[in-house]
UniProtKB/TrEMBL annotation:
Annotated SMART domains: EAL (SM00052), GGDEF (SM00267), PAC (SM00086), PAS (SM00091), PBPb (SM00062)
Domain (PAC) ranges: 480-532
Protein name in the entry: EAL domain-containing protein
Residue span, GGDEF domain: 564-702
Signal sequence extent: 1-22
Amino acid sequence: MPRAHRFLVLLFLLGCMGRAGAVPQAPLRVGVYQNAPKVFMGESGKASGIFVDLLREVASAERWQLEFVACEWQACIAALEAGRIDLLPDMAWSEDRARRYAFHQVPALHSWSQLYARRGNKIRSLLDLKGRRIAVLGGSIQAQALASVLAGYGAVLVPTVSLDAAFSLVADKEADAAAASHYFGDANAAAHRLEATPIVFNPARLYYAAMPGRQQAVLDAIDRRLTGWRTGPNSVYFATLQHWRAVGSEGGVPSGLLWVLAATVGLLLSALAVANWLRNEVAVRTRELRDNEHKLATILDSVDSLIYIKDAQSRFQYVNGATCRLFNRPAAAIIGQTDEILFGPEQARMTRAADLAVIEGHQRFETEEVLNGKVYLTTKIPLVRGEKVTELCGITTDITSHKQAEESLRIAAIVFQSGEGMCVLNPDAVIIEANQAWAALYGQSADELPGTAFPHFSLDSDGDDYRERMWDSVRDAQSWQGEVWMRRHDGRCYPAWLTVSAVRDADGILTNFVCTQSDISARKQADEKIVQLAYFDSLTGLPNRRLLYDRVKHCLDSHERNQDRGALLFLDMDNFKDLNDSRGHVVGDHLLQQVATRLLACARESDTVARLGGDEFVILLESIGADEARAQAYAETVGQKILAALREPFEVGGAVHHASCSIGIALCTGHEGGLDDLMRRGDLAMYEAKRQGRNTLSFFHPSMESEVTYRTVVETELRAALQHSQFVLHYQGQVDGDGIMTGAEALVRWQHPTRGMLGPAGFIGIAETSGLIVPLGRWVLRTACDQLALWAASPATAHFTLAVNVSVRQFLQSDFVEETLAIVAASGADPSRLKLELTETLMIEGVEETIGKMRILREHGICFSLDDFGTGYSSLSYLKLLPLDQLKIDQSFVRDVLIDPNDASIARSVVALGKSLGLKIIAEGVETEAQRSFLAGIGCDHWQGYLFSRPVDARTLEALAA
């Protein structure tokens, strides 16, 4: 008995035993949607597929009753959540689904997803998907994964209710590609004239899913069975997988079946010969047969073929015994009846058309018909009387078994000549026959292979010949399968999946071996590509965040075992954005690749150099010392080495570029709360290095966390302060050369409910980084304009100008110009009395945008002062383009202008530059008469500082002006 038949008998017996001893219980309702070959409803309405077969095995062992419920995917999900079904096979695990459904622990299958397109498509990479329509099963894991994978590529997802529908959309050109698991795609692509593209994504683990708390015992049982099956290569689990990989792939037809087929064909030919003889006799000797009607009837009644005579109106005039047996009526009940009465209207229309073709066309007619589920060959012959056809004789022979045998042979031939390599060998492992696919893999013609030995193969690419051990295993266990390295005729190796089965006759004697193999080079390359995409950065080839996290966890575990310390070096390139913006991302990418090369040169082979993204890198140093001091010294040495390496000039885009970086170092000391804490500490240390001026390194210190906590608290309090109007404006007077107060600068103060009045140094920096400077700046501008309007109403202060500081972030807001003009108009203030103070940073972050906005505001009368001039980056080429009214000498130069020659020289230069550009000059921070005299001597004619006025409220300032 063939192995497959024995297996089915065994399953039947086990099922009977299970039912005999089972405790009656409610059936387990299982959802089935169309996703062949994993799970589907066959044409007969029976559930089938890998998941169904495995569940039936579990149910048989656990004595469950199964009830399969057909549904579309979304309907299955809804039914599971509503409790109409208990279990849903073939659900891919994801974090979101793990929160909604219950899964067992051991995956039932491992799969991946792939895009399939029409043959001849030009989809080779994600870049080819721009503007393409991708059909995907709605609510599936592919739909979720594709949304992130295709982000930025311009592809459009088209949800469908089933995978068949998705493939049909592509076949009908209503979509360009469809996403499916490789199980479904490989099984169904050819039927839709589709082919797999190289785009592979979303490696997945597939499970049976239930609702939490409902079927935990069922899930536990599935886990037990899967765990047991996976330990044995000859288990039901692997047999089921192999069965569905090679459904219909049996390489030959047993000799016994061939004899049966031959006998059947012989009988059919004999019957056809008799029928043909009878037809000839009817045609040639019609008159003579009338005289021998009784004898002829006896002969005709003994024939299995249906023999009948109809008149020109298709009424039966004669029927033989076989026809009577078909209708289960005597001949008298059939004679005179028509096909419409005996077969029904639809069948009668077809037979009547054939009858007319014979009677009116005077021609013999042959056709195949299906009656009551069987196939018949019908021959109709015109019966001529004189020159007129008055009747016809029909002979209908049951050819069902012949057609089945013919179809089986056709399917066997198609399977043998399929794309999978197949060969049949004798008991001595000598090839008898091989198909073209096997010959193509081996590298020889199929005609040359019979009589040759089975080719050499090994389990490893450079391993020993494994053939003899494999044959011993097949003779003992009847089959063997595995991933191997086959050797071609020219000696080259390639990876393949090899399956070998022993064929025995009815007496158990080994007659043949049947082998199948498929080249899995593309699959292995895809696996390697998946690993590369999952764990490595595509630009630099360095490990990515995911692989880094795995290795950091290993480092922490190692520290717990042997107290051997490690360190994380967080590295961020200084001013990398400037290079990207000025010279383009291609040049920036080239620099990052060179940085990666230099970092690798600075690290050991045991260290991990990873790229987190953008211009951020992390270097993991493992086993660098048993004590903290030693580990810190080594980490600092490596950090200095990296700083020095990156200070060396780079050649990018045909030009020399000088770069630097900031490094934050966090030691793995055993005091961390975990991986996330260690990464956060390294990040904090890196930002501290940035604040220290860049191009340096900084070790993590607990105070950094305190500072972050403080900044978080202040940011929260700032938001509350904006909501509860806790800010006030103070004003510091500005005087001219005659000592007359000409105006003031508005300075914001925070009236904190617990800490009292706070100056800007305590909160402006946090407001800048958090983005709260925008609403705060808007409040300051509105309040200042309202005060300016009030001063305009008093003769003593009508001449006042008011300077208001504007942050870079506020000025670069897209609606800053419109918002400022609206505030000025609403307050009623004279715009020519408003002076906006800008910093030099604007000349770095957006010169063209800055000049455009300033010119628009300048046209409405608003004045501009350049604050803190000389402390930052000043480009004279941009300075002369800015529509400025005033330069302000920073107080850092004024403070030591009398004792520091450099500060004095800078002050002179600022005044000279301002005068040459026709600008007014004002110095801030003037606290002594000596400072004022010096500044007046070099040409500065406006001052601001404690010498004249401290920051005070508006009423006090008005009193000082009076």
